Amino acid sequence: MIESDSARRPHGFEWARTPLPWARWATRWMADAPAWPGEAPGLTRLGETRAGGQRRLRVRLAAHGADQVTIFVSPESGLIAAGAPGFVRPFGRSGPDDPFALRCTGRSCDGAELEFVARGEAPLALTLVGAVFAPRFPPEITPPPRPADVRPQYAPDSRASFARLRL
Question: Of the candidates 115, 125, 61, 62, which has an alpha carbon nearest to the alpha carbon of residue 91?
Answer without folding.
Answer: 115
